[in-house]
Amino acid sequence: MSASTLPFWSLGFARAYVVTMRPYLLFVSGAAGLVGLSFIPDPALGRVLLAFVPLFLSYGFGQALTDCFQTDTDSLSAPYRPLVRGIVSRRQILTVSMVGLTAVVLVLGYLNPVILAFGVVAVVGLLTYTYLKRTWWGGPPWNAWIVAILPIMGRFVDRGYRPGAPALSAFALAVLVVFLGYVNFVVMGYFKDISADRKTGYRTFPVVFGWRPAAIYGDVTAALSAALTAWVLTLVGANVWSVIMFVAALALYVHAQAAMHRTRDERETGGPIANGVRALVLCCLAITAANKVEWAPLLVVFYVFLELALRLRPERGQV
After folding, report:
1. What is the fold of 12-311?
2. Is residue 316 classed as helix, strand or coil in its secondary structure?
């Protein structure tokens, strides 16, 4: 540990690690987990709460883990991050992240041992993501399937759950909503890093094919995520809460994609990317509210905290 690196057990290190986790994106994993939990027919409150906490935190530990392998491009596109500044070490972040992810998997595995297998696969996916990010075809879907595992893990909190045969069940479609919505977020997020990725050899979709084709990629994934959300709401039965959330998500997707088509300035992409995050979370919350209307007031509070976390992020242009 260098002289400038914060001590492991210091408050400064804790703050730096929280910044590395991107607290505003914990709501993505939290919302994805809620989708799975909402499909449990009669969930016990204690089991739901015990599952929600690790599902919520999982994104942060995973994000910090992948940051350890991307300091080359982050040093150009996100110089504010603690790893880039050198105030924390890669070994520190790797240690805390692996301990955190292990705790997440063990807690969920306690609720249902089947989840252990999904957790191990997801961690392997995180460890290999940076290699796939360097390819135009690999990054978005590879990152997205890891997030799409979260609703599956949430569903398996019900020990009696046995996956059904129908390929187009409401739950299967809901998992696809998460997958496609997250593909959209990853593609949109690459726009802010085009210059840095080009210099450091990351052949992301926008780097290889250019701005307009990448924006169209975003259009397609956003449209599919929204369309499948509507399909799920039709299958499970929409209510006022779920419809309001879905309409808000649809409006945000349209606004985000239109804004990305209008600009060619990487510095102006933060707003559209943030709106894509909001839309994805709202699609998940709409499905959750359709399944469990009694959770709706808490889902509104959840979304309010997302907005607060977005406002408090250390660099407004970064999402």
Report:
1. Farnesyl Diphosphate Synthase (1.10.600)
2. coil
